[in-house]
Design goal:
237 residues; Ferritin; two-stranded parallel ribbon; binds fe (ii) ion; DNA protection during starvation protein 2; Ferritin-like; signal; ferric iron binding; Ferritin-like_SF
Length: 237
């Protein structure tokens, strides 16, 4: 039995090391083919440039360079954003199905767009978390326990209720992501850029909800600019 386990372990080690090309690496921690090729071609390896992952089999990945504390900042920013996006996925679908009232069809269609956009960004954020070397937690229990967002009411939903509820949700999530961009922009600009993209979309969705509620700045009868050319102020900005 022991021999079978030992043989399996050796085979697994060879596979992780990248096959025949890495067998010469010896009995220590297996190196990757990527690093082996870099050292013979004269190019800087991940090890020599200080960009190496603390994880043994992830050395070729570009990671935040300043160490474990900064990597933890990226993981926290990404995981919290993922959890909130997943909550919004559920809530936009719930509203898409149950909205009623004069604006039901407009909101039904718009919320399908929002759901699809949010789903794409949730996937991008989860997979960025894998790219920096952490697992992603997309479990239902995590969404309930950690999103810190009000739950959408059950049953049929009045159109005005959907508009004010999602305006608030998008505003809250947008502000949280905005803060996280600041947390990681120095140590992990790639994650910061992704969060900017997500925040940009959430602000757009917030505008698309808010626009149902806000007064038009132009008088529809006279054409006069009632708001004097000033933008409508956003809460929290
Ligand atoms: Fe649908």
């Amino acid at each position: 039995m022991k021999n079978i386990i030992l043989t399996s372990a050796l085979l697994l080690g060879t596979a992780l090391a990248g096959g025949a090309g890495a067998q010469s690496a010896g009995m220590g921690v297996p190196s990757t083919n990527v690093n082996a090729a870099a050292s013979t071609s004269g190019q800087a390896s991940a090890q020599s440039t200080g960009t190496a992952s603390p994880l043994p089999y992830n050395r070729a990945t570009t990671l935040p360079s300043s160490g474990t504390t900064d990597l933890n900042k990226s993981v926290a920013a990404l995981q919290n954003t993922l959890t909130e996006l997943q909550a919004l996925q559920l809530q936009t679908k719930q509203a898409h199905w149950n909205v009623s009232g004069t604006l039901w069809y407009t909101l039904h269609e718009l919320l399908q767009d929002h759901y699809e956009g949010i789903s794409k960004y949730a996937d991008d954020v989860a997979e960025r978390q894998l790219a920096v070397g952490a697992s992603s937690d997309g479990r239902a229990i995590t969404i309930v326990a950690a999103s810190r967002l009000p739950e959408i009411p059950g049953g049929f939903l009045d159109d005005a209720q959907v508009i004010s509820f999602l305006t608030y949700q998008y505003e809250t999530v947008g502000q949280r992501i905005y803060q996280r961009i600041g947390d990681v922009e120095k140590v992990d600009p790639t994650t910061a850029n992704l969060l900017q993209e997500v925040e940009h979309a959430i602000e757009k969705y917030q505008w698309q909800m808010r626009a149902f509620l806000q007064n038009t700045p132009t008088d529809p009868n006279t054409g006069a600019d009632l708001n004097n050319g000033r933008p409508v102020p956003l809460r929290g900005k």
